[in-house]
Amino acid sequence: MDDIFGIPAPLLFGQLLLGLINGAFYAMLSLGLAVIFGLLNIVNMAHGAQFMMGAFAAWMLLAWLGIGYWWALLIAPIIVAITGIILEKLFISRLYKLDHLYGLLLTFGLALIIEGVFRNEFGSSGLPYRIPTELSGAWDLGFMFMPVYRGWVVIAALALCLATWVIIEKTRLGAYLRAATENAALVQAFGVNVPRMVTLTYGFGVALAAIGGVLAAPIYSVNPQMGSNLIIVVFAVVVIGGMGSILGAILTGFALGVVEGLTKVFWPEASATVIFVIMAIVLLARPAGLFGRA
After folding, report:
1. Which listed residue, 12, 119, 161, 234, has the most CB atoms within 10 A of its CB?
2. How many Å apart are CA 49 and CA 225, to the nearest integer?
3. CA–CA gap between residue 177 and residue 207 (Å, rounded)
4. Where are the extended beta strands (E) located within 110-266?
5. How many Å is the maximal CA-CA distance in the chain?
6. Is residue 50 within 8 Å of 287, Cβ to Cβ?
7. Residue closest to 249 by CA, chosen among 292, 194, 282, 216
8. Does residue 89 carry a pLDDT above 70?
């Protein structure tokens, strides 16, 4: 297999793989945003900073305690989720009855503070995080070599997204969460501790971002700006998929990653703006997003 549409096959499939990897991170981050907005009605601008905290937590576990990648996948999201729960209890919980703008401004300020703390402590240059031995190397697909770790990221992200969708949409816990957004007093009357459930939901959304950070650590350098570089694109993904739509976040995240990757092959100049052009078109045609409800 030499050329496809006049494009060398290794280049085309390499960009397709890169798009899938970016799409995996878009999906995981937008999924966390969708969970938090859909169930708490908070626009969490701190999500990118919490993604970055997940990567730094994995790096610190390895550099300071010698705890490797596989345990970091479990421990780092718990650490970041606990910090998120503390923030929710101290600050965010006071804004649930106010306009969305207040939550957006608060979490944006928290993101700047978190990023500034990490920048002052670790600097702006990236810190390396090695790929685990079990996932090193590459698969020979005949027309290209696919790094094993990048394939793992796509598979892990897809599995995590599908599991989250099943929990939210197909389980009793998910039904309680969705019902609490419509009528919290009624759910409370059935003996459900709604404030605790809301707090844990925020922690779960934050943990999704942190898992994405751990997965990203061996691919991108661990640095304080790694979350802020993604969060604007992720918000565009959420808007296109539909604010609060779990399925929309997953499908749109992966699809737009692929579109972005293919655009780099066929029209490189437009690759940085193609997602925002799609967002503008979707907002004009369907303001609630592709999967959202008006």
Report:
1. 234
2. 8
3. 17
4. 138-140, 145-147
5. 65
6. no
7. 292
8. yes
pLDDT at 36: 85
Phi, psi for residue 234 in degrees, rounded to 5: -65, -40
Q: What is the pTM of this model?
A: 0.91
pLDDT at 4: 60
Retrieve residue 269's tokens. Answer: 């100049």
pLDDT-based confidence at residue 39 (cuts at 50, 70, 90): confident
Evaluate if residue 98 carries a pLDDT over 60. Answer: yes
Query: Please, how many CA atoms are within 13 Å of residue 82, restricted to the half-sphere of its CB?
Result: 6
Give the single-character DSSP code of 244. Answer: T
Cα–Cα nearest to 64, from 54, 56, 74:
56
Cα dihedral sign, 232-238-240-244: negative
Q: Distances from the Cα of 148 to the Cαs of 66, 132, 133, 163, 250, in angstroms?
A: 23, 10, 10, 22, 22
Q: 16-120+138-285 has which fold? A: ABC transporter involved in vitamin B12 uptake, BtuC (1.10.3470)
Q: How far apart are CA 34 and CA 37, in angstroms?
A: 5
For residue range 172-197, what is the model confidence (pLDDT) as tens digits?
887 877 777 667 777 787 777 878 88
Q: Band of the pLDDT at 289, cuts 50, 70, 90?
A: confident
Q: Among residues 28, 47, 22, which one has the least CA distance to residue 272? A: 22
**How open is the CA angle 255-259-261, to the nearest 5 degrees?**
115
Average pLDDT, the chain: 87
Contacts of 205 (CB under 8 A, 6+ apart): 32, 33, 35, 36, 44, 47, 84
